[in-house]
Task: structure prediction
Amino acid sequence: RQTAENAVQSAKDATVRCSDVDLEEVTLVRVVDGDTLVVRFDTGEDEKVRLIGINTPESVAPDTYRTKNTKEGEAASDYVKDLLSDTDTLYLQTDTSDKDRYDRLLRYVWLDVPDDVYSKSEIKEKMLNAILVEKGIAEAVEYEPDTAYADLFEELE
Result:
C-alpha cells in the first residue's frame, strides 16, 4: 500500500514540476538563422524568437552589423532548417526576460512537450536550444537574468 501511495505522490510531484512552467504552442513560420526563428501565435501574429542561452555565428547579419556572416553561421542555419524541416508545431518556454533589445521574444524552444522540463534526458532530446549546444552547432552563452538552463548548457558543450 505504501509503495502505491509513493508512486501516486511521485506522479503528482512530476505533474507539479511540469505544470509550474507554461509552454506556449506556436507554429513555425521559418528559420532566420541558427539561433532565431519566426513563429506564428494562434492570434495570427508572427514574432521573431531568439533562443535563450545559446549563440551561433552570424549568417544573415546586415553589412553594417558588428559581426560578419560566416560559413559556420550558414552551416548552423542550414542545420536548424534541416532539423525543423518536418516541424510545424513548437512549444515556447519563457525565462525572466520577455524580449531582447532587438524586440525578439526570448525563449527556450521545445520540439515536443516534455513530461518533465527539469529532466536532463528530455531537455537533450526535446529542447532545440540544448540540442544545438550538444551537437556543437551553438555555444552556450549565459545572458543574465535568463539562466534557468545555463549550467546544463555549459555541461553539454
